[in-house]
Design brief:
about 100 residues, Arc Repressor Mutant, subunit A, 5 helices, 3-stranded antiparallel β-sheet, alpha+beta
Length: about 100
């Protein structure tokens, strides 16, 4: 892996590395949703949710589309779900090993 690719991969991973952002990705696995719907599902303020959505959109994890006054988000790259699946599996195995 060259340095540029490694830097980009690190940026994408950093964009995911927040509990709210991980929850957003999980919520969006079910399909596109508006910012308000995502905020409600999270139990967060819309401003906080929008900030987190924009971080992931800037790194190409999510895509947005405006329809009138509402903005809808969806997962741009399904590979993110596979990566997170691997991370979650690792965490589950590590959790069992600690007990």
């Amino acid at each position: 892996m060259d340095k540029e690719l490694a830097n980009h991969a690190a940026e994408v991973l950093r964009a995911l590395a927040h509990p709210i952002r991980l929850q957003i990705v999980e919520i969006l696995e079910g399909g596109r949703m508006s910012v308000g719907e995502i905020a409600e599902a999270l139990g967060e303020k819309q401003a906080v949710t929008s900030q987190q959505l924009n971080i992931m959109k800037d790194k190409g994890i999510l895509r947005s589309r405006r329809e009138g006054a509402r903005v809808f988000y969806r997962i741009e790259n399904e590979n993110v779900l596979r990566v997170l699946g691997c991370v979650y599996n690792h965490c589950r195995k590590k959790g069992k090993a600690r007990k």
